[in-house]
Amino acid sequence: VPDEKGAAPSPVTIQPLGDPSPPCPRCGNAMVLRTASRGENRGNQFWGCSGYPTCRGMQSLEKTRHGAATQDSRA
Length: 75
What we know:
This protein is mainly beta. It has one helix and three strands.
């Protein structure tokens, strides 16, 4: 449904109810679930900052599932 300016709304990422989006450890924005498309982690899912490319914060999906969400050192 277009907004009052006639532009289409931006896409919305829907997360499962049992897996809420954690805050970005670098900037505090919501994180979005992403899938690595290259490298040794190709095909694996991870949390990436919704502010990408301005913020490159990320978290391992495994860390958030185990309750120990920390910033990935590659960010």
